[in-house]
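Researcher: We plan to redesign the surface later, but first we want a full-length starting point. Tokens attached.
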């Protein structure tokens, strides 16, 4: 059972930045896609960003140009650098791993206006 542990959430003012981390209990080096999803109150969970084992990233249109996903295979950790945060970015952010469709427990991000 792979475990994913997120950290780095918190309260920030609009325009500010946060960096989320996701530490995996097993190697993320080969053939593993890691990603971030988020869920705002009353809304469905939505895709935010994804990074392949080769380091290629994909982003939701709503965060493109503001968020950057990266990975450190040596540390089995994935990061989400979030800049120019907006109140609509407020959500619980979840780390995700494929194969296996593993999820972390989530970390709260709150952006005040």
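Model: Full-length starting sequence:
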């Amino acid at each position: 059972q792979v475990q994913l542990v997120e950290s780095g959430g918190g309260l920030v003012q609009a325009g500010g930045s946060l960096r989320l981390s996701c530490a995996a209990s097993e190697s993320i080096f080969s053939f593993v896609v890691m990603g971030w999803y988020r869920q705002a109150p009353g809304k469905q969970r939505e895709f935010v960003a994804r990074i392949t084992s080769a380091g290629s990233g994909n982003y939701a249109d709503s965060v493109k140009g503001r968020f950057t996903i990266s990975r450190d295979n040596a540390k089995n950790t994935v990061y989400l650098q979030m800049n120019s945060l907006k109140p609509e970015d407020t959500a619980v952010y979840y780390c995700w791993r494929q194969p296996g469709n593993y999820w972390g427990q989530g970390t709260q991000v709150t952006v005040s206006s």
